[in-house]
Each structure stands twice: as C-alpha cells, then as structure tokens.
Amino acid sequence: MDGFKKRTEMKKQTILQAALTLFLKHGLQKVSIAMIANEANVSQVTIYNYYESKDNLIHKVIHFYIDKTYQDYEALLESDLDFPDKINQIIFNKTEVSQEIHEELYSYLMKDLNDSNYLDRIYQEKGLPYFKKLIDEGKNAGYIDPALSEHAIMYFIQILKDSMQKEAVYESILPLTEDIMNIFFYGIMGKR
C-alpha cells in the first residue's frame, strides 16, 4: 500500500473511532458531522468524501464496532489467561459496554443487525469457532461439565442470540447484561 492510501485508511479509521466515541456517549441524533470532524481533526468535507452521508457513516461505524469487538474477543481467547479469568473478563467487558453504550446507538445496532446479514456472517465465521474453542478449553480444564455436548451448548447460545435480536427483547435487555452473562456462565445457582 502506497503512502497516500495508507494515510487515507488511517484517516478513515480515525473518523470511525471519533464517530464511535461520540455515538457511544451522545447517541446518534445529537451527534453532528461537525462534531465528528472536530473530534477526528478533519474537515466535514473529508467525512462526506469518504462516507457521503451521516447514514452511511453510521452504518460503517456499526461494522467498525462489530469488527473491533471481535478483535478484542479474539485477543482475549488467544491470551494466556486461565479459563475463569477469561470468563470474568468476558462478563466484565459485556457489563462495561452495556454501561457505556448510549441506548439509541444500542437500539440502532440491534435493528441494523436484524436488517443486515453482516453480524450473522461474522458470527458464523468467527463467533461460533471462538465459542467452540472456549468451550473445549473449559472442558479440558475441568470447568465445563464434559458430559454436556457441544451441540447442546451451541444450541443454547443460538437461542440466546436469536431471542436477543427480537425488538421487544433488545429494547429492554441492556440493563440486564451482567445478570444474563452470569446466568449463562454460572447458571441460576451461581458460582460454587
């Protein structure tokens, strides 16, 4: 990649990160292109040249956010942390995100995920293999009951994913994220 293309890509990443930061804090409606340009230290014209409209930028930010989240999980799962520490980190990350994300952005994200196949593709290509690897690691380390079939666990994960994408659910579930993650990993009896 030549210097011009490299600078262009870096500038696009800076814009996406600036927009994400503002959307997380203020939601979508209250954030203007001027605010994003200021945060990214670029002109509004530059943003329109790259993304054409605020709607296109929002769509790209959603993809950027999903990709970034999966990269973070990939790094966590590939880390040397033991299984319980990985689970605690996953719960902490989910809780932290649920407290930081603006409800308007969360609703848009969930609606966008239902309207596009991007998340499903990423989930199939990356998410499921990582879950399977994590489950195997937990079984091998003695933290997950080896009698539980991978198929049953993956089926349960699919049920959670499908239900959380329903509008009636995703509109009210954000404050319950930590509880849901704890139930998923520790059951209703909790840590023992």
TrEMBL record:
Keywords: DNA-binding, Repressor. The keyword Ubl conjugation does not apply. GO terms for molecular function: DNA binding. The keyword DNA-binding applies. Residues 32-51 bind DNA. It comes from the Bacteria. InterPro entries: Homeodomain-like_sf, HTH-type_Tx_Regulator, HTH_TetR. PROSITE patterns: HTH_TETR_2 (PS50977). Residues 9-69 form the HTH tetR-type domain. PANTHER family: ACREF/ENVCD OPERON REPRESSOR-RELATED, TRANSCRIPTIONAL REGULATOR, TETR FAMILY. This is TetR family transcriptional regulator.
